[in-house]
Structure prediction request, 977 residues.
Amino acid sequence: MSHTRTLVEALRKRLGGAAPLPPPAPTPRIPEPPVRVFPRRNEKTAYAKEAATHTTALLGIGHVGTRYATDVVLQFQAELAVAHGAVAHELAPDFAARNALLPLESRVADHRQFLLRPDLGRRLSDESVHRLRAGATKSPDVQPILADGLSAVACEGSGMALLHAFTRACERRGLTVGTPVCARYARVWLEDEIGEIVGAKVAAILLGERPGLGTGDGLSAYLVYEPKLGKTDGDRNMMSNIHARGTPPEVAGDRLAVLAKAMVDQRTSGVSLDLSGLVAELGEAASRAPRAPQERVRLVEVDR
Amino acid sequence: MILEPIPPRILSVRRIPNADPAVLAAYGADPTRHRSLGLITVDQDDPTYVALDEATKHAPVDVVFARSFYAGAAHGSGPISGEILGVLAASDPDEIDEGLAALIRCLEHDACFYGADESKKTPVFPHVIASLGHYLSAQAGVAPGTSMAYLVAPPMEGAIALDAALKAADVRAAKIFPPPTETNFTAAWLVGSLVDCQAAAEAYCETVVRVAANPRER
Amino acid sequence: MRLRATIRNVGYEFGSLREVFAKANPPKSGDQLAGIAARDPVERVAARAVLANVTLEQIRNNPVIPYEVDELTRLFEHSLDEAAYSAVKHLTVGQFREWLLDSKTDGHRIRSVSPGLTPEMAAAVCKLMTNLDLMTAGAKCLVVVRANNTLGLPGRLSSRVQPNHPTDDVAGILLSTREGLSYGCGDAVIGVNPATDTAESTAEILTAIDAVLKKNGCPTQHCVLSHVTVQMRALSELRCPMDLMFQSLSGSEAGNKAFGISVGLIDEAADMMKRLGSTRGPNRMYFETGQGSALSSAAHHGADQVTLEARCYGFARRYDPFLVNTVVGFIGPEYLEDGPQITRAGLEDHFMGKLLGIPMGCDACFTYHARMSQDELEGLKVLLGAAGCTYLMSLPVGDDLMLNYPSTSFHDIPSVRRLLGKRPAPEFDAWLNELGILDGDQPGERFGDPRVIRP
Prediction:
């Protein structure tokens, strides 16, 4: 259609072989960017240093364009791998026996089913129902339950410490504590059936919480008054982040006992439980206890 | 790749179906014959002159106004000013539509600058028109229907290339625009037979490429 | 109403519209857990074919939870805009999908129809859409809201700074907040999930954040996401500043009971915010939702989780909220098993929320026991941004120390904005430019430098 286009096309072919342009300039050596590392103990910005005394959040890490420095990416991926490892870990079958706890199991058959079928993790297997009926003290004020939940690592780690601290703190407040049990493949609501069978006033399940970055060892606790099948989340009070860098087990045990005592006194739990008179007591346990400056553990070291 | 097309961008196309006589007069139309205007702005001027001329071959329209803006499209007064404003005039809006359609077709499929180097920093316009319409033929002082090589390049490349084009074929210069023009290019309108115009354009284009690649003849 | 389709000579008959709704969903582990999912892909398509020929009027007349047993169903029925409804009631779900996708249908037309839609209608059309359909239609919807700044304008992408701390250490919360602001995050809200659910702690955190925002002239909102009753006490008795009041919502009356709330309670909360809240408004509420929450408290009435999620939005829109977001992957693999399911749910939730007229954002996230990778999550953030999502979350490296899950990071927000040519909310954008955090659409000289925000 166009005379000009045909002409230019032919000319371009003819000139193409003749390399009419000078060769491209050589690429200069790309200088190494300044070292930006995940902040170590002694090479932090002032902001990161201040942040480290208040939080384990990765602050003051800078940026490359709008993205992370390579070192930060590696730290982050290492922490992710640790968290996934914690999820995959299963509670040792003899953990209950070794710690002199009454062993119980939910209706879950294996780990994948545990993740996909919370309904089965909320009910005891028939065998466990019999074992609980036969082996546990009836009608305690508080029935403590240690369980794997979503991190068996946390349960095996500081589970016994929390259970002991909680038991002692309850007894100090004049509450009777039931036979300690340990439940495998357990969800929070399993406390309803266990508490109902033993006829406890309050059921307290202490279990591994969903792992976070670099924190596969956190425990949560859920307390419910007059446990029985059919209780909902609104009926419960909970406390999370029980681990050395959050609320330590000894402090948490104390605070949970305060909650349990309030439930027994007020004969209720959940949103209708009035905690306004206990702020000082809970507050002290929750946030004003002295904590060591927090440090996120550097996970990646490369031998050069 | 060299000689890649640099397609012109049409920045605006508007019609005034029934223009005020003062506007008609101001833009060079004749209020006794013309009633409707078609206006276009584009970021390349020379392809637009060619396309305006093309419009006169496809519709009963007149090119009443066509001016390049100083220093080119990169320095437009507004985002749709571009490098040129062209105005077609006709007795009714349908004719304007027909003329604009031909104009746009030519800009989209035919007339454009080419990059004489890899980076497209040296534009060249080696355009061959087989048969002129009555706009460019009047501007060049030749008969409608004449063949033309419409040649544009930056000043240095254009001067050397024009010499080469005139020597390569049996053509004559109807008009030469030495620098600086409004857009700081240099241009030439060469006329002759179609075959000679093609040969001249080819020589012109090739020379621009060579000068751009070797500005100091080393 | 006959609910029957034939595919390759096999007839599929469905007993109720609720069953059709459930079986028309793409695969979700939560629908399988509830025992209501299609048994195979062909039955799923048959359910969709049936659904495509149901009219919106038939859907209004057959809510997934009966009028008599659920206050949300009654709310939807009584508050429906009859004029808007009558403009679309004759359309089948298939025709409604095509109307939404038609180039001639723009955001303003969708907005005019939206008050006439029940949540079930939004869920129904969602089931007939592919992911790109959901993005295409979602991006058209225009929902603009205002509190201290303006969210939801075209070409904008906002974010919540979520400076959660495992023990509510206020200094730690403020350090994370300042860092987030220095990356251009936080125009939606500075929103803290507290570890301790008390009015005193809520008031303490709000007062501290308020002081930093005021001192720096930062045009955004603050919120502490404790239970609504706790916030009401903090507001009415402790009289702390509170720009937005928060509550998690569920899609059924029974689900809301499990959260300790009801329509009456939220009415009371919204009314209190009108009187005592600290923004000029008119939008003052913040809600979070997420597929699967009703089932997790056995409050689903046999309905599927997509439809129940839409009902949360129907509940939310009663209060003209400033923010609503789905916390899409937070609930865990028993409801959304893996990357594709979480991605799908994020796009569904955004679309349904926008269609129903609320300023929908998304916490694009997963939990460490779901099968989703960091790369898949980054992809979802870009998809949501392209779909016109009002806001995303933002945390230091996307890691929530308190709730233990990965979400969007301070670095992700400016990255997605630049990729998609989006800007923060206009008032916030101007403030960022003034401080040198942004330089037009580029990172400015003080980008990522938290010292630019005074403590």
Observations:
- Residues 7 and 112 of chain B are 6 Å apart (CA to CA).
- Chain B touches chain A through 24 residues (CB under 8 Å).
- The helical segments of chain B are 21-26, 45-58, 93-109, 134-140, 155-168, 194-213.
